[in-house]
Structures are given as structure tokens and as C-alpha cells.
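Intended use. Records such as the EamA domain-containing membrane protein RarD entry shown here are meant for training and evaluating sequence-to-structure methods. They are not intended to support clinical decisions.
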Amino acid sequence: MNHKIKGYFWACISSATFGLIPLFALPLGQKGLSHDTVLCYRFAAASLFVALWMAFKKESFMITKRELMLLLILGVLYAVSAQYLFISYDYLGVGTASTILFLYPVFVALLMAVFFKEKINMITLAAILIAFSGISLLYKGDNGVSLNPLGIGTILLSALSYAVYIVVVNKSKVQYISGYKLTMYVMAVSAVFFLIKTQITGGLAPLPDTVAVLDLTLLSLLATALSCVAMVFAVQYVGSTATAILGALEPVVAVAVGVLAFNEVITKNLVFGVLLILIAVSLIVLSDYFYKRMKVKKVIL
């Protein structure tokens, strides 16, 4: 019971802190910093925080050449997902963008079906239909005004990139790497990715003031490093299924941030769209869990 309580606690911390990304990221953009600059600083600082944690835990930093190649691919995928998420903030509300991003388990299910021939059961199919019904509600506002198609496209690309990232982790030997080591190297590669981009587009801009330094520190420490480390703890204590379900706190927190910090309006369509997407993701996670349980029982029988 103590392990479960700890697991639920860390799962909530992980999803809630990840939902705080726009609270710290948007003020940096409002001060004239480009997405590439913010993301470069964010991932560089986050990788440093995780590296310090690994040093404290006396964990090895060694990786093989094969692991390095996979980590380079994962770092680029994570960077692309983060970039599209930040771009979507410019066109959609924070709550809407974060809710649609939470569709990534739907894309994971579709990718596994297309590329690895995994069967989509009836529950998963129903969940996919519910999820896209939720998107349609978010797309068409209560006042009849549609969301920006470019914003919808970028956030869907963000969710798809993150889904590919998850599939690569699950279907390669990199899944056996320590969660801390995986996180540290992925963040470091993402930081290098954006450093190269900033050099092409005009250079890495300095942080303008101490408030920006504080926002960046909180973005890197709370909404990135702590989120990833807390997720590792949660999976260790209660498993990936419970951790994924409690990940529903992420869009809920993001919606709250949008309303309280950026004066976004809560509409009926937003509420129902969020609920439908949360239901769809929960159905996919639970159907996968029960399907695996049934397979185990069949093997035992």
C-alpha cells in the first residue's frame, strides 16, 4: 500500500508539473526569446539537472555505439515534438493545445497496428472515434469560430512525433537503459538540436533579466527534469498503466493555467472536448492492460 501511495504521488507530480510548461515558457516568448532559444536553454539545463542526480546516485553514464545512435534519433524526435508544441501555443489556447497533445496514446495504437501488425480491438477502435470526436468539438468553438488549422496541424504533429518516440523506445533495446540515463541523453541531444538551429537562424539569445532566468529554471527543473524523474519513480512503484491514466492531470493543469494565468475562456465545447479525449485515452490504456491480463491467463490455462 505504501508503494502504491508513493507511485500515485509521483505520477501526479509528473503529470501536473508537465502541465505547467506554458506557465513558464510563454512569458519567455513574450520577452522576445525565440522558441529555439527557450528550448535550447530548457533541455540543456534539464539534462544538467538529471546528470547531477545521476552523479549523486552514482549511476553510470556509459552507453554503447548502438545505444548512441538510438539516443540521437530519440533526441531529435523529442525536440521536434517540443518544437511543434511551442508553435501550437501561438495559434491555439494553452488548454486546447495541451489537451490535443494528450492524444499521443491514440497515435501509438495506430502506429503499432500499421507497422507492427498489432490488432486494434473494439475498445481501442471506439476510443479512437471518441478521441477524434473530442478534437472536432475543440476545433469548432461555441461561438461558431473554428480553431486555426495551422495550430491544429502543428499540435497533431507534436503528438505524432512523441508517439513515434514512445514506439522507438518500446521496440528497441534502448528500453533497457536506465530511465535517468535515457532522459539525460535525450535532453542533451535535444539541446544540441536547438543549439544548431539557433546558430542557423541568428544565434542563441541571452536571457534578458532575472525573472527570465527564474522562469527558465522552473521550466527546466519542475516542468522537465522533475517530470521525467517523477515518471520513472511512478512506473517503478505502480507500473506504466496507472502512471498513464494519472497522466490525465497534465491537460487539466494546462487548462487551469490557461484560464488563471492567460485569461483563456472555458467554453462548453472545451469542457466536453477535454472529457472525450480523457475518456478515449483512458480506454486505450485500460484496454491494453486488460488485453495483456487475458493473454497471461490464457498462457496459464
